[in-house]
Amino acid sequence: MPTTPLPRSTHELYQALQENHERPYGRARTVTAEELAEAAEQFEEPVPLIRALLELQEAYTYGSEPRKSPVVFARLLTLFDEQPDLFDERLRHTLFWRFKWVANALRALPEIPLASLRQWQTEMRDRYEKAGYGLQPYYGQAYQLASHIGEDTALAYELWAGRTRTRLSDCEACEICERALYHLTAGDDEGALRAWDPVLQGKESCQEEPARSISHALLPLLRTGRIDRARELHLAGYRGCRRNPSMAGEIGRHLEFCALTGNEARGLELLAENRSLFDEVDSPREQLDFLTGAEVLLQRVELLGHGELPAAGFAGRTWTVTGLRAEVRERADDLAARFDTRNGTTAHAGRRGARLDREPLTDALELTLRTRGLDDVTPAAAPAVTPATDEPLPELIVRARTLDEQGDPDSRACWARLRTLVAARDYTHPDDPAVGPLVRLRADLLDDEAAQAGEKNDHAEAAALYEEAAGLYDDAGQPAYAAVARGCALLATGQIPDPDDDGEEAKAAALTAAHAAVTALHERTPGLPPYLEARLLRLRATALGLRLQTSGDEEHIAPVLAETDLLHTFATRHDIATQISGALLLRATTFALSGDLPAALAGTDDVLDRLRTHGPAWHLPRTLGLRGRLHLGLQDPQAAYADLTEGLRLAAGRPADTSGAARLHNDMAGACLHLGRPDEALRHLTRSAELDLRHGVRFDAFCTYSSAARLSLDLGRVEDCIALLDSLLAEPDVTTGELDDRLTAQLRLTRARALHTGEDLKAATAEFVALAAESAGWDDDPGSHAMIAAETAVLLGESGEFARAREAADQALAAHAKDPRYEQLSNCLRELARLQAERQGPDGLAGARAFLTDAARVAHEAGAAGYEAQGRPLDVALAYEYGRVHAYAGEYADSLTSLEEALALIGEPGQAQDQEQAGSWAECVRLAGVVEGVYLERPAPALTRLDAAIARLTALGHTEDAESLTSLAARLRDED
User: Fold this and answer.
1) DSSP annotation string for 157-222
2) Opening angle at CA 104, ends 98 and 110, nearest 5
């Protein structure tokens, strides 16, 4: 069945061919090209068929199907031989250009005899000579064949490189790459990089470049010490070839680069992203390059002892690194042997062996903001216990309970070790009264699991596990422990979101109920051991503290402090150190929540004094983190930085999931931003996110990574931002839809903005269009849809698609009517007006005016609502845009009128410190001077306006703003 409606006229055919030409290369585009070529057969006129066949050959060539490209070209050549007059100059040029495509396709197929390759080159030379074309392109193909075979290329290179280029020569970028590869093969890294410089600098490019050159240049850059440049080009170059079957070889070299720079984990991630290439690449040469690069990576991972890691490979089965490496090696060896048999050399096996024998070029080059090692992608094992193997089981159980009783987070490692032992088939529980029955141990393990679930904010799971643990404690004859577990279950239940009412009042009411339930449980459970009773008191105080945090109600402050005092008094009487410091910390936190930051700071000082004197030491990192946040709230980032630095130092000696290291890194990022250290802040954000991700707090991790991505974009690190988001969006949480859809949308939105900043307008627009369609269904958040649709409209305008831009702008306006976004909508509409007038001139004036009319309505609504713009006032910006739009459309009198209105609205700058007003006013004067003096040809009044403005700005000290006016005035005087 056809994938697209078949054209019924040549006009429809050409339109369909153009639409297909805009699609990315791949199977979908190729199938459509095949259908259109078949449809073109119905027309008597042969030219539509010629154009359809050319489109089909291009789809085969860049869709990595080299076997089919020569077949299509043979038919084109027959049509040319039979009816050469059908080929105008452009078609004729295209036909002769593609002789090189066929030569390249034949080289990529080891089943094509070498004699046939040489015969095709002879055919190309004869045809070029007969047509009067120069032979430099022919000699270029002769050189590439010699290089492919592994012959001495010196003469072939001179015959090609020494000739003058012709219209049919490969583009400058492709020829630069071939010259660079000649130097690289000779072992001259510096010569190769000098040759590559115009391509790597972005001065020359084409369909395949610079992605092809970058992939080859990565290792020479490393070998010559240009490490930062290699990193930068890896990020940009990989993005240019990812998932592209025709660039499988380039992707293979990026995999190799990861393997040789200590980035094996990223290499496995990229391999998974390009898994389809194992089956989609039909070019044996591309397959060989890709598989060899993949084998370099897999070999390195296996050498590092991670051969059992899962790996993405050929479809139809699951793979480990070891298994996939064996399969890849067998297939790649076979391909190399087939090429060498055809060519009569050992070149391909030799090149492959050289790649596999390379040693790492650096221990660990930080390629992306997500620095992960293979240990981070290995399924988590139980944390080690010291001593892990020699400690007898009874002693391990007793030690775990003792640590847990003390509140020592090191108990977590003991429970993890015990969980592994108990799960083993051959586990035998010790018959020891000090240990108790197995059911007691199972209850302990469930209690620990519940605590971990609560730390991950999975309160429903935590409540269920605590209830199950309580039942087992009852079975074990431990009613006191059962009571505490039920208290924990009650608190966890109070934190479970209500799907029908997720408002603050409902949350506060649930926590009030939880506190009452825990208190009642406490009162009806007499005779508790002091350390367990202290835990119930802590639960009571925590419930009220969470209620205060949720509601912010002043009436909720005193009850928290009362419960905290009760806990502190009890813990002091029974000398329970961890609960004494816990109570003091809760009190300080309560002051912070109530807004009394000085009292909270004094409270943390008291806690730190006690912790340093009496312990427990494991509370120090979290307490220092709280004091650091308080210093930030009191506008003392330097003190915050000092506290957080000490907190991180102390946390480094403890397991990250129990020391609060992720939160400390996040807080440190805030301190660094306040101190003007954004790059350091970025490092702390990514460290915080990866710690959370590693310990299963995935939502928080993605939120932090989202902040890191936005910061990296603000810092101009566009490729870092895109690489980070590409990695995150490939996580299973995202691909399976488990992550919150709004958070996923935020990640995609930041990526789309980064693509736009990186001047990948096509990809950015496609992502924005998709996001606008999805956000249209956000009935609970029309404001966000308004902003996304507005940005989408601007990108469509930048692409010249003003009809679609109008549709997107109308969507934004409709959403804005429900949840106003005055400034964003005004900016969008004015920019669309400017773009349409600038691109289309007088023809676009009506559309531009329509956008401005909408912008005027938004500005009026904003004024009526008392909205104040963060930037220029909306009415001022609108008047200026009216002037600019009419100037683009050639309506200069209307333009000048609008600009004078804008000047009146801005008003002359009256204070030296009002830089923003002076800048806006000066720009408006400049444009008015251009319109009046240049386009309306009235230099005298224009100069009067400019001279007065220059004097005014100079007197106020705004000399930079006056410079552009002075330059314009001089130009007008010269022309006059």
Assistant:
1) HHHHHTSPP-TTSPPHHHHHHHHHHHHHHTT-HHHHHHHHHHHHTTSS--SSTTHHHHHHHHHHHH
2) 140
Distance in angstroms (rounded) separating the CA atoms of residues 800 and 835: 8
Phi/psi-derived region of residue 873, left when phi > 0, alpha when psi is between -120 and 50, beta in every other case: beta
Name residues whose C-beta falls within 8 Å of residue 685's C-beta, 6 or more positions apart in sequence. 665, 666, 669, 704, 705, 707, 708, 711
DSSP 502-546: -SHHHHHHHHHHHHHHHHHHHHT--S--HHHHHHHHHHHHHHHHH
Rounded to whole angstroms, the Cα distance separating 670 from 679 reads 12
CB 643 within 8 A of CB 631: yes
Tell me how far apart the alpha carbons of residues 833 and 421 are, in angstroms, rounded to a whole number: 70
Cα dihedral 150, 154, 158, 160, rounded to 10, equals 0
Q: Phi/psi at 320 (nearest 5 deg)?
A: -100, 170
pLDDT tens for residues 62-103? 988 999 999 999 999 999 999 999 999 999 999 999 999 999
Q: How far, in Å, CA of 193 to CA of 202, rounded?
A: 14
Q: What is the pLDDT of residues 551-581, one digit of tens each?
A: 999 999 999 999 999 999 999 999 999 999 9
Q: How far, in Å, CA of 609 to CA of 604, rounded?
A: 8
Phi, then psi, of 311 in degrees rounded to 5:
-140, 145
Q: Give the Å distances, CA to CA, from 127 to 87, 142, 249, 501.
A: 15, 15, 31, 78
Q: What's the pTM value of the predicted model, to 2 decimals?
A: 0.85
Separation between Cα atoms, residue 386 and residue 394, nearest integer Å: 15
Q: How far apart are CA 413 and CA 408, in angstroms?
A: 11
Cβ–Cβ under 8 Å, residues 887 and 935: yes
Q: How far apart (Å, rounded) are the C-alpha atoms in residues 473 and 673?
A: 49
Of 599, 487, 462, the closest CA to residue 542 belongs to 487
- How far apart, in whole angstroms, are the C-alpha atoms of residue 471 and residue 474? 5
The neighbour count for residue 126, using CB atoms within 10 Å, is 11
> Whole-angstrom Cα distance, residue 867 to residue 824?
12
